[in-house]
Amino acid sequence: MIGIRFEIPNEWNSYLSLIFKDVNDKTFNWIISDEEIYLADYSDLFKESIYKNDTFKEVISNDKYYLISGNILAFKSLNYKDISTYEDFLNSDCEILMVVVDSYYVDVYVKNDKILEQIRNNAIDNKFKNIEYIIKDSNRNIFHTY
Predict the structure, then answer these.
(1) Which DSSP letter does residue 128 get?
(2) The pTM is what?
(3) Distance, C-alpha 146 to centroid of its chain
């Protein structure tokens, strides 16, 4: 398994905090890109594009916000590079890559099995819909879910 996919409700909430609950690697640097995530006053949730773990956790836990789309990546270093393919992800310092699309659809790719299971448990605990693992089909070099 290389990740997990699920759907969140299309409503105001602190979904990033719910998804990443108990994912507490103090060494993570979180990179935020291509995001549309708004606070109640329609200002951006993220004012910066890079956060240390503690600051990231504080930002995502404070208020309810509307999560439309975004790419959220956790790196153990600041050795950030663009990631376009799964191979790019594997060959990078990125530990978590989350993509949110259309306010509902969430894909999270994770290198650490314990973190993957924690995110899965968080999705189950929060009654997110259509929870399924993402696996890689090495014969055809495409992604499948089950």
Answers:
(1) -
(2) 0.90
(3) 19
